[in-house]
Amino acid sequence: METTNMNDGAGSRDVSSRQLPDSGEPSPSFFERYAYGIKALLIGILVLLLLIPANMIMGLISEREQRQFEAKGEVSGKWGDAQTITGPVLVIPYYSKPNVVSNAIFLPEKLKVNGQLMPEIRRRGIYEVAVYTSRLDISGAFSKLDLSELNIPPAAVLLKDAYLAVGVNDMRGISNQAGVQWNGQTYYFNPGIAAADLFPNGMQVKVPLSMSDSGIVSGNFAVNLELKGSGQLFFSPVGKTTSVEMKSNWTNPSFDGAFLPNAHNVDDKGFTAAWQVSNLNRNFPQSWVGNNSNLHSADFGVKLFLPVDTYQQSTRAVKYAILIIGLSFLVYYFIELLQRYSVHPLQYILIGVALCVFYTLLIALAEQLNFSIAYLIAAVMTIGLVSFYTASVLRSVRLAAGIGGALSLLYGFIYVIIRSEDQALLMGSLGLFIILAIVMYFSRRIKWGEL
Question: Distance between CA atoms of 260 and 264, rounded to whole angstroms?
Answer without folding.
Answer: 9
